[in-house]
Write a structure and sequence with these properties.
With about 425 residues, the protein is an alpha/beta fold. It contains 16 helices and 13 strands. It folds into two domains: about 140 residues, Aspartate Aminotransferase, domain 1, CATH 3.90.1150; about 230 residues, Aspartate Aminotransferase, domain 2, CATH 3.40.640. The C terminus is likely disordered. The structure holds pyridoxal-5'-phosphate.
């Protein structure tokens, strides 16, 4: 098959040789072409295999140890002995797979226990586990709203929330990122009988910015709108109890549903939705990723359960992480790197052009620091960043050395390639 036509199949009758190839959008995807290009910065960082756990200093498959500023292991629990042991025990007891949906055979005591403890953590009536953070967002947004209702989605939410909103029966309206006037004007324009739900990330995953949740909850209250907050990058990071941006900004009680990913602070894989009992029951009855997909494997549930318990028993981990985030921001700022303003464990250093982003990533990597290069098309051209993520278990020497090295790498790359077309502090 060539040129986007199935016609090249010579076994087709002549009349069908002009049939278009429905796989053409895959074959011709410009991002896939970029990722095939080994010089593309995103492809370089995505393609580096690790040879060990995502620890502050990680062994990579090339045999070299590097300071790891590029994982979601915020509380440092992914290699914790207690977490590993609990997962091992569950593996021995329950086997490698739940081998079915939660609504059939896939529920173990561990699933129920984790749901209970997550609901307790957030002070909600219920929690629903899903097999990924993506699926938590899809399970929730695809089961709320009628065609007459409206989802008001911040333009920069995680891709899974955009996809989940598109899977909803409601109408999707985007508002400008973190722009309260934009949100307010859209709320004002709504039919007063339409259901309205505002959808935000607590912490934005590429820039580390917080959503202005106090003002957003005020707007929701004034307009009778519900609020959904994705706390994938807030859980374990913000608030004294590690509940995320909602706790940090004192509005947790005003959020109608919180979604999380277990793959970051909770050292596992999976997701969850914390909400009312009635809403949770509705999700369990109707959501495709819950009803028609296999349950989380018991070992990953055990890992997350142990991680939640450690997080709650050792709040000093959360404060150490917060100190580490502040330290890295300070080191970068002192070294002239101007990280985007934020309070979470995601620290984004603007690099500018794709070339500068790629060169800065390579220099940092070659000198012993692993980061995430974020370039076009994840962000608009000219607004690339090196995305650094912090762990509670990094020590001061590691963060100082790595921060200075990253700042120097960015400076050198911008000197060589220019800093792109745009000097704004926000990447999009
Ligand atoms: C804000 C946000 N929500 C959801 C997800 C998806 O989580 P998962 O990887 O568990 O599917 C991510 C992943 O990076 C994220 O950043």
């Amino acid at each position: 098959m060539t040129d986007g036509l199935v016609a090249a199949r010579s076994d087709l009758p002549a009349a069908l040789r002009g049939r278009r190839d429905p796989f053409a959008p895959l074959h011709e995807n410009p991002l896939a072409a970029l990722l095939r290009d080994p010089r593309h910065p995103g492809s370089a960082s995505a393609a580096v295999p690790t040879g060990g756990a995502p620890l502050p200093v990680t062994r990579y498959a090339d045999g070299r140890d590097r300071v790891n500023l590029g994982t979601g292991n915020y509380l440092g629990l992914a290699g914790d002995r207690r977490v590993v042991e609990s997962a091992t025990e569950a593996l021995r007891r329950y086997g490698t797979s739940a081998s079915g949906s939660r609504v059939l055979n896939g529920t173990t005591r561990l699933h129920l226990q984790l749901e209970e403890e997550l609901a307790d953590l957030y002070g909600t009536e219920a929690a629903v586990l899903t097999s990924s953070g993506v699926n938590a967002n899809v399970a929730l947004l695809s089961t709320i709203c009628t065609p007459d209702d409206v989802l008001l989605v911040d333009a920069h939410v995680h891709a899974s929330l955009h996809a989940a909103a598109a899977a909803s029966r409601g109408q999707v309206v985007r508002w400008s990122h973190n722009d309260l006037e934009s949100l307010a004007s859209r709320l004002q324009q709504l039919d007063p009988r339409a259901g309205a739900v505002v959808v935000v990330d607590g912490v934005y995953s590429m820039t580390g910015e917080l959503a202005p949740l106090r003002e957003i909850t005020d707007l929701c209250a004034r307009h009778g709108a519900r609020l959904v907050v994705d706390e994938a990058h807030g859980l374990g990071v913000l608030g004294d109890g590690g509940r995320g941006a909602g706790e940090e900004l004192g509005v947790l009680d005003d959020v109608d549903a919180v979604t999380i990913a277990l793959s970051k602070s909770l050292a596992s894989v999976g997701g969850a939705i914390m909400t009312t009992r009635a809403a949770a029951d509705g999700i369990r009855a109707a959501a495709m990723p819950y009803v028609f997909s296999a349950a989380n494997d018991p070992a990953s549930v055990a890992a997350a359960l142990t991680a939640v318990r450690i997080m709650r028993a050792e709040p000093e981990r959360i404060s150490r992480l917060q100190d580490n985030c502040a330290l890295l921001r300070r080191v970068l700022t002192d070294a002239g790197a101007r990280p985007i303003e934020g309070r979470g464990a995601v620290v984004a250093v603007p690099t500018g052009s794709d070339e500068a982003t790629g060169a800065a990533w390579r220099t940092a990597f070659d000198n012993g620091v692993y980061t995430n290069a974020v370039a076009y098309p994840a962000v608009p051209r000219g607004r690339g960043v090196l995305r650094l993520t912090v762990m509670a278990t990094h020590n001061e020497a590691q963060l100082r050395a790595a921060g200075e090295l990253v700042a120097a790498a960015v400076r050198a790359a911008q000197g060589e390639h220019g800093d792109g077309v745009d000097d704004r502090r926000s990447v999009a």
